[in-house]
Amino acid sequence: MNVRSSLAASVPFVVCIFLFCLTPFPRISVVCMGVLIAAWLSSGRISESIRKVWGDRVLLLLVIFYLYHAVSVLYSSNLSYAAFDLQVKLSFLLFPFLLSAFSFSPYNAKRFRLFFIAGAFATAIWCLIHAVLNFYQTHDKGSFFYEQFAGPFHPAYLSIYLNLAFLFLMEEYFVYSEGIGLFKKFQLFAMIILFAAITLLSARTASTTSIITILLYFSILFFQKKISGGNKLIAAALIACVLLIQLMAVNFYNRFSQIEDVLQTPSPSIQVDKNAYESSTMARIHLWQNSFEVIKQHPLFGVGIGDVKDELVIAYQKNHYERGAENHTNPHNQYLQTAVALGIAGLVILLLILILPLFSSFKNKDWIYCLFILIIALNALTESILERESGIIFFSFFAVFFRLQSKLEHNADN
Predict the structure, then answer these.
(1) CA R_g for the chain
(2) Residue 320 — left, alpha, or beta (φ > 0 → left; ψ -120 to 50 → alpha)?
(3) Measured distance CA(290)–CA(302) in Å, rounded
(4) Could you tell me the pTM of the whole model?
(5) Contact 405, 109 (CB under 8 A)
(6) Cβ-based neighbour number of residue 71 at 10 Å
(7) Helix (H, G, I), strand (E, B), or coil: what is residue 74?
(8) pLDDT digits (tens, 9 = 90+) for 350-396
(9) Are 352 and 399 in contact (CB under 8 A)?
């Protein structure tokens, strides 16, 4: 077997390692991407993958989104940051071509899901052990919540990963697995651990989205009669457990109270006293206000990806929002982030990237795909989710993977 054949044959294994490491060891996932690029370049399927991307409007939109970022460099002043941003967002360009070059069997697709679940579960267990050890040393209950619980991971992004892993586990347990053996019991245990970790991570939007998508998927499975017999009792117990975990956590560490405080504040001022207390919820309000100021000045094509932070800092300084200026904080809203960088034109592309697969997956009853898009769309309201490498790689891979698998299954049914 020559090098080309060896690389092609290794692709499913490399994807498995990529997905397992995506949550706990993201740097290894980046190395796996390098192997996938080598396999693609040596596969002799480059032209075939280009044709597939060209013939699929969702995949093509991901490529166009990246190319539009590249074009915006032409009207950016800060070229060094623009180059860095293009490097971070390279997954938008790579994954449509990399995954289109190879066909994955249903068996491989199932293995991919299981490896992703395993990586997410291992990370959740690590966070729990880390919290227990930290609490043993400090006796601080904060060890079990938010950033202390997350350790080296970002609470919101980790919650998003665990959310999708939980949905995959639900699918495995209620749709594919049979019997009541030890493996099924472990799946139930893993779901409880994953949701407990999501709750303790205390990322407001991510945990709320998790509850919404989990309850939606339970409703879909009930409606489709995938949950029947004894599984109805198990499903009801699991839902009760999910809600109980959330209620108990809120009693100990309630970050949702910040929202109530903001709602009671009439028309928050865009100018902020630097010595005044500012919750993370109120900070987002101020960030969004300043982002709108920049969008109004550059509505059509934005300021360019190189100048996003510089222009936002100018707005922060103008409006005396010193915290934002000192920390070079992004808008913490992907829709505003894209509008600032690429204007309304870029925002339209982003919305199409989310809306088109949402409608097609709903039409084809690809429920996990549909819920994945919903996870991204909702979390994008309070996080610039496609500005961090961890968010970009996660979204780009699964957006392409779900799209290709959906088309494959839909064509097979026809």
Answers:
(1) 22
(2) left
(3) 14
(4) 0.93
(5) yes
(6) 15
(7) helix
(8) 999 999 999 999 999 999 999 999 999 999 999 999 999 999 999 99
(9) no
